[in-house]
Amino acid sequence: MKKTAFEKRVKRKIIAREHTFFASCAPGLKTLLANEIMALNMRSEKIAIKKGGLEFSGKLHDCYTANLKLRCPIRILMRIGRFKAENFSTLEKKLMDLDIELILKTDTKLNFYVSAKGSRLYHTSAIAKRADKILTCKLSKTPGGIITKEKNRPVIQDIFIRAEDDHFEISIDSSGGLLHKRGIKKLTSHAPLRENLAWAVLMFTGFSKNDILIDPMCGSGTFSLEACLFKNNIPPGFYRNFAFQSWQCFRKEKWKYIKQQAQDRFRSCDNVEIFASDIDIKAVSALKKNLSRHSLNNNIGLNAHDFFSINPKQFTEKKGVVVLNPPYGKRVGKDLEISCFYNEIKSKLKKDFKGWRVGIIAPEKRLLKRCSFQKTNIRPFYHGGLDIFLMTGVV
Question: What is the pLDDT of residues 16-36, one digit of tens each?
Answer without folding.
Answer: 999 999 999 998 899 999 999
